[in-house]
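Hi P.,

Sorry for the delay on this. The queue was packed all week, but I finally got your sequence through. Input first:
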Amino acid sequence: MKPIRIIGSLIILMAFSSPAQDIQHEALAVNIEVAVRVFKGDEFIDHLTLRDFEVLEDGIPQDIAAVYLVRNATVEREEKAAASPELQRPPTQRNFVLAFEVINWLPRIRDSLDYFFRQVLQPEDSLIITTPLKTYRLTPAALERKPTNQILAELTSLLKRDIANGNREYKSMIRDLQSVDRMVGPGYSSGRLKEDLFRKIRDYKYFDERKFQAFAECLKDLEGQKHVFFFYQREKIPVPKHMVDSMELMARDSVFDVDRIKRLFSDSTITTHFLFLTKQLEGLSDVRIFNPDIDRLPLSDQSYAIFKPFHEITRTTGGITTASANPLYAFKRAADASQNYYLLYYSPGNYVADGKFHKIKVRVRSGRYRVFHRAGYIAD
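Then the structure:
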């Protein structure tokens, strides 16, 4: 059960449980909202004022109407331009999505959940968790009914079960690949069978662009900030040397239209954090090896076809990418970065609902900082 189905189930769940917020959509057509994170090293810079920021749309400087400093879903400081007294304090509720696309259960995933529930999640926040098998939505009311320890224990059990069951077919294909010499029959070459298995594995990991579009549209209708934390586990499969190049080409063919997805996620104000877990299924230890020569086959890293596009999506939406063997470290870094930000508002001059993507660039006038924000919006 791979991401295409995970995202599909998330769409169905949200379509029936989240009413459309047309008011927010219309507001964006007048006042464009941009969440901005400014860092020096790993330190969030919290002393900036309206005058410190510069906003450009399609390369043209824009007048900033207001700047809000937000910490842990609370507006700590606000500053408005003299011409924009009518702007009201923005909604700061948060919508979290924890998406687990991992092959094996890693103990420190439990530590990540513990940190999230104790240090990040607040009573008014909404939470959706997707696994390789199912989607779970935890409402504030549901979270209040049970103590944190009980919630963590139940989620840990669910994740372990779903990760095991959701990857059963994938591991079965790996076993088929490893026992290919025993399955080859008359008139069917070993090379042809191996290639078919590789294609099957590739297609199993395929991401459907239409699902991404529907996912972005569903999250766009939610009021407040949207944070998606995507846990992805590195994966390698054994490949005969003569097929390594063709496997890399096959993987490239499976990549979706990244530019289109980047625009959709940016327009929907979805901050995506990509947590690339480098601890892989080493030696495929939980899969019986039938062919002793399998250990001498080179491993083809199938993760690069996922890493590059998701890193680009993350960068375009103002999130961060972290690669680590430690899920807790990766998640803590991304979660801490999501806690503090500025909300900038500006009204684009001569706005036209032309259906085009308009690029946003935010700069800090002085100082050497790293600035993260969404890349733009679609004027519709």
